[in-house]
Design a protein that fits this description.
Blueprint lengths: L19 H13 L1 H12 L8 E6 L4 E6 L2 E2 L1 H5 L4 H4 L3 E6 L6 E5 H17 L7 E5 L4 H13 L2 E4 L6 H10 L4 E5 L2 E3 L2 E3 L1 H9 L7 E5 L13 E3 H6 L10 E2 L3 E7 L7 E6 L1 H14 L7 E4 L6 H13 L3 E5 L10 H9 L3 E4 L1 H10 L2 H4 L8 E5 L5 H11 L6 E4 L33 E4 L10 E7 L9 E2 L3 H9 L6 E9 L5 E6 L3 E4 L2 E4 H8 L5 E11 L3 E10 L7 H14 L8 E4 L13 H8 L16 H8 L4
Helix pairs in contact: 1-2, 5-6, 7-8, 10-11, 13-15
Bound molecules: 5'-O-[(S)-ethoxy(hydroxy)phosphoryl]adenosine.
The site of 5'-O-[(S)-ethoxy(hydroxy)phosphoryl]adenosine has 23 residues, from α11, β20, β24 and β25.
Keywords: Acetylation, ATP-binding, Ligase, Magnesium, Metal-binding, Nucleotide-binding
Protein name: Acetyl-coenzyme A synthetase
EC number: 6.2.1.1
Length: about 650
Amino acid sequence: MSEFPTHPVPANFKDAHINPQQYQEMYQRSIEDPEGFWGEKAVEFLTWDQPWDKVMEYDFVKGTAEWFAGGKLNVSYNCIDRHLPERASQTALIWEGDDPADSKHITYGELKDHVCKLANALKARGVNKGDRVCIYMPMIPEAAYAMLACTRIGAVHSIVFGGFSPEALKDRIIDSDCQAVITADEGVRGGRTVPLKVNADKALEACPGVHTCLVVKRTGGDVAWNDERDVWYEELVDQQSTDCAPEMMDAEDPLFILYTSGSTGKPKGVLHTTGGYLLQTSMTFKYAFDYREGEIYWCTADVGWVTGHSYIVYGPLANGAITLMFEGVPTYPDAGRCWEIVDKHQVNTFYTAPTAIRALQAVGDEPVTRSSRASLRLLGTVGEPINPEAWEWYHRVVGDGRCPIVDTWWQTETGAHMITPLPGATPLKPGSATFPFFGVNLALLNEDGSEIEGPGAGYLVVKASWPSQIRSVYGDHQRMIDTYFSNYPGYYFTGDGASRDEDGYYWITGRVDDVLNVSGHRMGTAEVESALVLHDDIAEAAVVGFPHDIKGQGIYAYVTPMQGVEPSEELLQELIQLCVKEIGPIAKPDVIQWAPGLPKTRSGKIMRRILRKIAENELDSLGDTSTLADPSVVESLVENRPG
Ligand code: WTA
């Protein structure tokens, strides 16, 4: 699997929360007696207003799952109030601005005041328990306040990544029927502004159901104003009381919706609920990062993605941790920024994506080695498979050979880590996410659905429910069943392929469906194709991924112009802009190849396998093309391959 030697548990992790023997014992118990195991952990990790009736009940045929039903708790109470007796004046959130001169600390006491005021402001605007609130924000503390304020009053948040276009924002607001939007005048990233309010205005033209748009003044830039709908955040929030009683929620009440891409159709709203989600995020946070009291923890994700939800906000705050939120990008003002921040705030744990590691590695060691990084104790990675070379660089150069690397495999749908090393328990193999977390019962399946025993490679599935499992696709439970529970009945299908070696280590190989992973961002090939064919001059488009040194995967689009339309540089630019408009800058194709025809079977199905091979430049292994309606199409594509 990997040429690289195994890294044993370092000496300074011998007294970690979980040692090797505990991992074995607890894992076994969690699989044999999940109700007993999770029931105990739910008491240890969370504060409940009322006990549950039953730990869990699920049905992988109907795609249903309930955890701790009947139990009552409030997420903001668990993330803030219960820590106040000991931590009112301890920092909860460190904010580091895009500009290296901007940073601030927010204590747990201050966090409570901010969150309660905003919760009262939302109530004043008529937002009630169960209502959906869209959060379209830059990485500023108000984004975390907004999430927690929703949970305080039982509103359901739906965060839309600030890099998404007005079109993408509109679709998401409409799909989850949001009544309020929280945004900012502008965001700031890498020294440039992001026109969030302008984008929101465009999106809201088509969303008459939104009665309130709360706007944080981040830059003071000029924005248009709709007096009935728009409210300055500061003006409304400042007048509110700092007391707001937390709403008692059922463990199975919805907590948030987060849109993610699948292999077909529009992005789906992954629905997470209250109790199970908070339990698994807080427990994985403590164990996977071996979090210790008072440590400074930094996850570089954006709150617009699930990693930001679970490991910037909910997991850390439920543990009373100190979590750092960074507004900017790793390369601004230069490629040393992350390590400057590590030194400035004495960061102990740093959690990022392989794409960022590769991008920084490509710049060379100097921006890293000019910093001290002596505070670092642990490094983490998430979002895509990490190649062993990048792993070794991260370990040797960033971590000075001293910090274990936790490679955490999970998904928007799983809510929390599913496969991850525990730094005090797991010898590390570079490139492997290692072993399942407690309670996670995995299998690898053959094409025919039979389980692979021992070493082998196949489809990665989960055999039993876990607390932070997706509960439904918002508004479309059938899609939940079709997407996750139909391919292999009785199992949750992850969409990933994986192998297991002779020591039982898991190695994720990537998606086996038509989902791309571009710089750790999930995107359906169908979404990009739909954007491209919106152009009047385009008849058809097919999109595949290809290996990209930095992004992991790049976007390769084959585009067929309408009859009589001449391909041109101008048309190409228009197509790129269309992807940006419909989805966002992350959806820009890296390569567009003009394709007079696409390889199709006689029944008209596009043979993506062949398109992938051409994109990957694997021209010797195109395979059997004899079943194609017109095999000459392939020759022409190969001949005209750009570059
Ligand atoms: C991929 C991100 C290999 C995988 C938390 C999964 C990974 C998809 C890893 C989910 C990892 C995530 N190693 N692949 N450590 N972590 N993935 O929903 O293909 O944005 O299915 O959640 O990312 O992406 P999502």
